[in-house]
C-alpha cells in the first residue's frame, strides 16, 4: 500500500477544512499515516490495544490526561500510550500528523457519536 | 514503552552531530520513532519485510530508486515500500524523522559495514 511517492503534508492539509476528521495520506506496513485539523475539545477516550502518535505540524495541541495536561507545539510530538484515557484540545486551529495501527477508531472506547470517523477518506 | 511525554524534535536533533546514525526518541507499539541527520550518500539497500517512513524536518532529502529519484523537502515525507531498493542522499545536511518496525537495520540487506547501526541509543 505504501506508495514510494513524495507527500507534501501542507498541501494535503490545505485540501480540506473540517476539524476532527482524519484523512489518510499513506500507510506503512499495517499503520495509517493521517493528517487532521483540530480545534476546540475532543472527547475523553482510550485505545485499549494501540499507542497513538501525534506530531504537531502547525499550531499547538494540548493533550489532557486525567492527572495532567501536556502542551505540544509545532515540531513536537507525543505518543499516547495504549489504555491511557486522553482528550486532545486545541485553543486555536492546530494541524497534526497522526499515526496508528489500521482500524483504530478515533473515539476509541467512547460510544460512537458525531465525532466518530470509521472509514477514512484517502487524499 | 511509549512515554506519554512531549518530545521536541529540534532539541533532540541539536543534541548530536554525527550523520547516518539514527537515535531513538520514542516507540509506538512495536515501531521505533527515530531522528537522524543525513549528509552525502548512503548505500543501496532494501528491507524485504518492512516499509520505512522518512519525514523531512529540515533541509532536503533525495531518495534514489533504481529507476527514479524523488526529492523530499522539509514538511514532506515518503514511505519506501518493502522490498524496493533505495539509497538516501542529501546534498546538504538534512534532518529526518524515521519510523519503522523495531529491529529493522538501517542498511537492510546490504553487507554490514561502517554505516550499519544495530543497537540504537535512546536520546
Describe it.
The structure is a homodimer of 123-residue chains. The first copy, chain A, is built from one helix and eight strands; from the N terminus they run βαβββββββ. The radius of gyration of chain A is 14 Å and the shape is globular. Helix content of chain A is 5%, strand content 47%. By secondary structure, chain A is mainly beta. In chain A, strands 2, 3, 4, 5, 6, 7 and 8 form a seven-stranded antiparallel β-sheet that branches. The longest helix of chain A is centred in the N-terminal third of the chain and has 6 residues, at 9-14. The interface between A and B is large, with 38 and 38 residues.
Query: Helix proportion of residues of chain A, in percent?
Result: under 10%
User: Which chain pair shows the most residues in contact?
Assistant: A-B, 38 and 38 residues
Outline the low-pLDDT stretches of chain A: none
**How would a textbook summarize the main sheet of chain A?**
7 strands, antiparallel
Task: Give a short synopsis of this structure.
The first copy, chain A, is mainly beta.
Please outline the helices and strands.
Two copies of one chain form a homodimer.
Chain A: E1 7-8, H1 9-14, E2 23-28, E3 31-41, E4 52-58, E5 60-65, E6 69-73, E7 76-80, E8 86-101
Antiparallel strand pairs in A: 2-3, 3-8, 4-7, 4-8, 5-6, 5-8
Notable characteristics:
homodimer, 123 residues, mainly beta, seven-stranded antiparallel beta sheet, 1 helix, 47% strand
Amino acid at each position: 500500500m505504501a506508495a514510494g511517492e513524495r507527500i507534501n503534508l501542507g498541501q494535503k492539509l490545505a485540501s480540506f477544512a473540517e476539524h476532527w476528521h482524519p484523512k489518510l495520506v499513506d500507510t506503512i506496513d499495517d499503520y495509517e499515516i493521517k493528517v487532521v485539523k483540530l480545534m476546540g475539545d475532543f472527547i475523553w477516550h482510550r485505545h485499549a490495544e494501540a499507542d497513538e502518535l501525534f506530531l504537531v505540524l502547525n499550531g499547538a495541541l494540548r493533550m489532557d490526561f486525567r492527572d495532567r495536561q501536556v502542551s505540544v507545539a509545532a515540531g513536537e510530538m507525543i505518543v499516547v500510550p495504549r489504555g491511557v484515557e486522553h482528550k486532545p484540545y486545541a485553543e486555536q486551529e492546530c494541524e497534526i500528523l497522526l499515526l496508528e495501527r489500521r482500524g483504530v477508531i478515533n473515539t476509541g472506547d467512547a460510544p460512537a457519536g458525531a465525532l466518530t470517523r470509521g472509514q477514512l477518506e484517502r487524499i
